[in-house]
UniProtKB/TrEMBL annotation:
Subcellular location: Mitochondrion
Domain of life according to the entry: Eukaryota
One Gene Ontology cellular component annotation held by this UniProt entry: mitochondrial matrix
Protein name, entry field: BolA-like protein 3
Taxon lineage: Eukaryota, Metazoa, Chordata, Craniata, Vertebrata
Protein species of origin: Labrus bergylta (ballan wrasse)
Length: 114
């Protein structure tokens, strides 16, 4: 009886581990493979494209898992030339003033094209 219980318990635990692993792999691959942007990412990218038309590179990523609470922005624009990093970030913050009110956090990475 004890051997049967131990065997059944081991089987159930193994099945749960496999299930968790598969869920993590599926959710990770769905997020990465589809490479579609969330509505928030599209909205923020559109605003930044309008505000920084000379941007040579722009990437907006929802790093909150899709709920829109936190974003990471990478933007490279000649409009940042001659400005300190804090001034560059202030320009981005100003452009996204309305959107930032509904966010939990924002990571900004700015650069000037080489």
């Amino acid at each position: 009886m004890f051997a049967f219980r131990r065997s059944l318990t081991s089987t159930v635990i193994s099945a749960l581990r496999v299930s968790r692993t598969n869920q993590a792999a599926v959710s990770g691959s769905v997020q990465r493979c589809l490479s579609t942007q969330t509505d928030g990412e599209v909205r923020i990218a559109t605003i930044l494209k309008e505000k920084f038309p000379s941007a040579s590179s722009l990437k907006v990523v929802d790093i909150s898992g899709g709920c829109g609470a936190m974003y990471e922005i990478h933007i490279e624009s000649s409009e940042f030339k001659g400005k300190r990093t804090i001034q560059q970030h202030q320009l981005v913050n100003q452009a996204l003033k309305e959107e930032i009110q509904g966010m939990h956090g924002l990571r900004i990475f700015t650069d000037v094209p080489k």
